[in-house]
Structure formats: structure tokens, C-alpha cells
Design a protein that fits this description.
The protein has 305 residues and is α/β, with parallel strands linked by helices. It is built from 11 helices and 12 strands. Strands 1, 2, 3, 4, 5, 8, 9, 10, 11 and 12 form a 10-stranded parallel β-sheet that branches. It has a two-stranded antiparallel sheet with strand order 6-7. Helix 1 packs across helix 2.
């Protein structure tokens, strides 16, 4: 299992130079991937494209870009540009987002989400791969072609938790990007269903990217309380509630990797045993010493994988 960093926590107070520096440091430290969410007014793909100029090996992914507010042709153009800027290191993670966000923030109608993602992929995939698409869908359409800035398209990955989305992710994309999913859910829900979908579609085994809060600390309770308060809304979203119920927990803090070095190592080992191909840490350490200890453990696991 490859170890990477999810820097989305830095988006709460976005500073472009700080995030690029964090990506460069992650590349220098030997982590395999760095992921950013598309949220607020900081553009994830633009940030990753800038960081690509100052890095050499690290894979750069979005986790994830919501599909509802962005036409697939616009996203294809941006993703291909970022792919060219980074020398082919972009992973384009996309997802549906959630009904409260779609309706409450964007003032769009949440309807037929599965049809929405299928139409989206039917436009996005050929534009990335060939520079042309001719598709008339119920939710998204595009007819046209254009020259691409690179002939090497980025991988597409799909945020997926439920059975139908996992089927689409396994049969149509390079894999799935997860958030707030623990080892029991990986083992019993995510991995078998996405692998089965890929096998039926005669595709390679998909990537399964697991992401959780992580902190090495001698006093875990305050950090768990902080994570629980910050991420409490996830426990009320139906898709995440179903995954937390599989784990037998109430909130995200209960499946976060917060504790001693050994506790974090054991948690990472359990996630690897459950079938994740990648783990990306959202580092929630509360002070510089704890952050350094956390990064050291993550770096050791990455080096010894």
C-alpha cells in the first residue's frame, strides 16, 4: 500500500505558496501521492499544476472535483492542461458531492445522480482520451473536438461508496477515492464490489485510495474530540452514515488513526490488509512536534512498503 498526503486541511485558510511548499516537501520526503479537494475558492487542479513545476515524482490528485457545477468539457480542458504542466502526474478524482451541498449551496436540483455521473463520464472520457466527443445525454451533452495539450490523459477515479457507484468506478475508471471509510468497510463492501465490477468489465484491478485523519500523539483524546467536532456533519450524510454503521461507530473520530506510533502503524497495516492500494493521510497533529512524529511514521511506512 502506497502512502500519500491529503493536504485538504490546508484549504480552511488557503495560502497558495504554503500548499505548494507542502506538496514539494511531500515529494522530497518520498511520499507517492498528494491529494487536494476541490472546495471553496481555491482551485485544486490549478494548484496541483503549479506544484508540478517544482516536483519530480509525486503523483498529484484531486479528491475530489464535484461534477454538478462544472461542465465535463471545462473539466477536461483543465485536467489536460494540468496533466501537461506536471509531466503526466495528474489523477482526476471526481464525485457527485452530496444533496445538501448541491441544493443548499449551488441551488441546483439533486436528481438522478447515477444518470448524472454516467452522462458526465460519457463526455469526459473521450475528451480526455481522444480530444473529441459526440454524446447527447439527459444531464450532460457535448459535440465537438479540439487539439489537446498532451496526448497522455490523466487517470479518472470516482468517489464511490454505494453498490451502483462502485460498479461504475470499477467498470469505467481507474478506481475509487474514499473518505471516512474504515477497514471493515473496505474489506466487506468497497474492495470486493469494485474488484468484481472491474473483473466483469475485463479491466485491471482498480485502485482503492483510503483517506483518514492521522496524528501521532501521547494525548489522543483532545485530538479525537477536535476531529469529531470538525467532521460531525459526515455522520448525518446518508452515504457516510451507512459506512460508519458497517464499522459499528458513531463518528469519524472513532476510525481515525490517532495515538502512538505503534497505534498508527497498526492502523495502517489493518487498512492495507483490508485491500486498500493507497492511503492518504489528513494530518491533524496539534503542534509541530506531533506533526513531525506523524510525518516520520508515515514516511517510515512508505519507505518499508
Amino acid at each position: 500500500m502506497d502512502i500519500g498526503i491529503n493536504g485538504s486541511g490546508l484549504l480552511a485558510q488557503p495560502n497558495l505558496d504554503e500548499i505548494v511548499d507542502d506538496i514539494v516537501a511531500s515529494d522530497d520526503a518520498g511520499f507517492s501521492t498528494y491529494w487536494l479537494a476541490q472546495t471553496g475558492l481555491m482551485d485544486a487542479l490549478t494548484t496541483l499544476a503549479l506544484a508540478g513545476r517544482d516536483t519530480t515524482l509525486i503523483e498529484l490528485g484531486t479528491a475530489v472535483v464535484p461534477t454538478w457545477p462544472r461542465h465535463p468539457q471545462a473539466l477536461a480542458a483543465q485536467a489536460l492542461t494540468a496533466q501537461a504542466a506536471t509531466g503526466g502526474r495528474i489523477v482526476l478524482g471526481i464525485g457527485l458531492a452530496h444533496q445538501p451541498t448541491v441544493e443548499g449551496r449551488w441551488r441546483m436540483r439533486w436528481e438522478r445522480p447515477i444518470r448524472q455521473i454516467l452522462d458526465y463520464l460519457n463526455v469526459l472520457e473521450p475528451l480526455l482520451a481522444e480530444g473529441s466527443a459526440s454524446y447527447e445525454g439527459d444531464m450532460w451533452s457535448f459535440v465537438g473536438e479540439a487539439a489537446r495539450p498532451t496526448s497522455t490523459p490523466p487517470q479518472i477515479m470516482l468517489a464511490a461508496l454505494g453498490d451502483r457507484m462502485l460498479e461504475i468506478a470499477g467498470s469505467r475508471t481507474a478506481g475509487t477515492i474514499l473518505w471516512c471509510v474504515g477497514p471493515r468497510t473496505l474489506e466487506t463492501q468497497i474492495v470486493p464490489k469494485i474488484n468484481d465490477a472491474a473483473a466483469k468489465a475485463d479491466r485491471a484491478q482498480p485502485r482503492v485510495v483510503c483517506s483518514l485523519p492521522v496524528a501521532v500523539t501521547d494525548n489522543p483524546q483532545p485530538t479525537r474530540q477536535f476531529v469529531g467536532a470538525m467532521l460531525k456533519d459526515y455522520a448525518s450524510l446518508p452515504s457516510y452514515r451507512a459506512m460508519l454503521d458497517i464499522e459499528g461507530v458513531h463518528g469519524v473520530e472513532e476510525i481515525s488513526l490517532i495515538g502512538s506510533e505503534d497505534h498508527v502503524r497498526e492502523g495502517l497495516a489493518r487498512i492495507a490488509e483490508s485491500g486498500a492500494t493507497d492511503f492518504t493521510a489528513v494530518v491533524v497533529a496539534s503542534d509541530p512536534d506531533e506533526r513531525a512524529r506523524t510525518m516520520a511514521v508515515l514516511g517510515q511506512v512508505q519507505a518499508n512498503r
